[in-house]
Design a protein that fits this description.
This protein is α+β, with helices and mostly antiparallel strands. 41% of the residues lie in helices and 22% in strands. The strands form five sheets. It has a six-stranded antiparallel sheet, sandwiched between helices. Strands 15-17-18-20-19 form a five-stranded mixed sheet, with helices on one face. A four-stranded antiparallel sheet has the order 4-3-6-7, with no helix packed on it. Strand 1 and strand 2 form a beta hairpin. The protein starts with 5 loop residues before the first strand and ends in an 18-residue tail after the last strand. The C terminus is likely disordered.
């Protein structure tokens, strides 16, 4: 409307409108007028703005509506104005979006900011749409004493979800849109506002606030601020929902991959068990030990693989805090090589470890033993067809300890090298589970360490593992000493 378009005033108890010479004119109930007495129910049009005249006492509809299109303009102006009085509050809201990633905590923080900025007594943030069922309350706050039950106006919410308009009513008790069965009347609410949480393409929830039993009212600038906040929060809610959907997809994909991987591993092990069992059955039928000598190694090897698979699954399945105790890393390796010498000899692989300096380090010896076992078995298997060598070294550093497992085997191909830490990825074909290295990387990560790999196809591979010292006060009270036969 132009600066001096029309004047509305009261004279002798009557409400009048006067056109002040505007180019677009003034209309009452569709007719252009120069001056006119306004009565209850008249519709007054000034420029593109339209008003309805309501007699005081008959109805105090006091309302304000902000369309989705206008909300975008208000949001843009409010966040771009350098002198905007609400910029500090909007900055705090944006800061929350960048630092709080749990949705319910984020929404509660946003609601607390709204209570600081606006004269509200009760507030709710809901997510979901009416098409998906009843929207869910994700955050709520009430500063009313003895307040019971959710004081939500379902009429107001339904209107907002249907139209995507933000809405304000300054006297809900007499607003003719609410019947006496509506919760807004039952809770003696006077003023209420509701703004939609709009994502990029659709509404994803709403913010609802009211003045409670307080006679305080809201003004259009209050609704504009609430609408701007709702637009910011709407994108955050949509992002959270998209993230959750992606997590679910990844989870199901991981379950499918794990099921397929485990099924493949177990099938191969069952095949070996059946083969070994058949030899043993023949040995029993013919009373010929040579069949037993063929069958038992096959059966024993399959049982060992199942045992390793189960232990790796248990270790890989959940995060854990290492139970660190001072452990002799050299003795740990000596014990391991001693236990694997028969397996290595059978595959014509030479094991070599000659410790030099003492290497006592605070580690979870059960878990690090599993790391050493996985790396050494892989190294032995890599040398199986080359009659190679598997050796180990240990070293103490200022900030930790390290060990290396070196083999002269087949090396790691490029397509496997970049996926070593992934579960069910193996270069062993049907004989590998693909869990050993994934479990190894997880255990080393839990110790705060790292793994470096050097490999050349056809010449061999070296796994370097570094384990940092744990920084903790006081001296250890326990020490694990591993003897040669422990």
């Amino acid at each position: 409307v132009s600066r001096r378009h029309a004047r509305i005033y009261i004279k002798e108890g009557k409400l009048l409108v006067e056109d002040l010479g505007s180019s677009n004119g003034v209309e009452v109930n569709g007719q252009r007028v120069k001056e006119r007495v306004l009565g209850d129910g008249d519709r007054l049009t000034i420029g593109e703005a339209s008003f309805r005249v309501v007699r005081e006492g008959d109805s105090t509809l006091g309302q304000s509506i902000i369309s989705a299109e206008k909300a975008a303009v208000i949001h843009r102006e409010m966040v771009s104005s350098p002198q905007g009085q609400h910029l500090p509050m909007l900055y705090q809201a944006s800061e929350l979006l960048g630092t709080v990633f749990e949705l319910d905590t984020l929404l509660k923080g946003i609601l607390d900011l709204i209570f600081e900025a606006l004269p509200v007594k009760r507030g709710f943030i809901l997510t979901g749409t009416e098409h998906e069922g009843k929207p869910e309350i994700r955050a709520s706050r009430s500063d009313e004493e003895g307040d019971k039950g959710p004081p939500l106006s379902h009429t107001l919410l339904s209107h907002v979800f249907e139209t995507q308009d933000a809405m304000l009513t300054v006297d809900a008790q007499n607003d003719n849109r609410f019947d006496h069965a509506d919760s807004i009347v039952g809770h003696e609410i006077h003023a209420a506002m509701c703004a939609p949480l709009c994502g990029r393409d659709a509404i994803v929830g709403a913010i609802y606030v009211d003045s409670g039993t307080s006679p305080k009212t809201f003004k259009t600038p209050d609704l504009e601020l609430l609408t701007t906040i709702a637009r910011i929060v709407g994108v955050a809610v949509e992002n959270a929902r998209l993230y959750q959907e992606n997590v679910e997809k990844e989870r199901f994909a991981a379950i499918g991959l794990a099921t397929a991987g485990l099924g493949h591993c177990i099938k191969n092990m069952v095949t070996a068990i059946r083969g070994g069992t058949e030899f043993i059955n023949i040995a029993m039928e013919k009373q010929d030990i040579k069949y037993l000598e063929k069958g038992w190694p096959i059966l024993s090897g399959a049982i060992e693989r199942i045992d390793n698979l189960v232990l790796n699954m248990l270790s890989y399945s959940k995060e854990r805090v290492p139970e660190r105790l001072p452990t002799d890393l050299n003795q740990l390796l000596l014990n391991l090589f001693d236990s694997l010498k028969k397996r290595a000899a059978k595959q014509k692989v030479t094991l070599s470890f000659k410790p030099k300096d003492s290497c006592i380090v605070d580690i979870d010896h059960h878990e690090i033993y599993r790391v050493l076992l996985n790396l050494t078995i892989n190294a032995i298997d890599a040398c199986e067809h080359k009659e190679g060598t598997v050796s180990a070294t240990t070293a103490k550093h200022e900030d930790g300890a390290s060990f290396s497992i070196i083999d002269t085997g087949s090396g790691i191909p490029d397509e496997i090298y970049n996926r070593l830490s992934e579960a069910f990825v193996s270069s062993k074909g049907s004989s590998g589970t693909g869990l050993g290295l994934a479990c190894t990387y997880k255990i080393v990560r839990e110790h705060g360490g790292r793994i470096d790999v050097e490999t050349e196809v056809g010449k061999g591979t070296t796994f370097h593992v570094f384990l940092p010292f744990e920084k903790r006060p006081g001296n250890p009270t326990k020490r694990i000493v591993l003897s040669g036969d422990s």
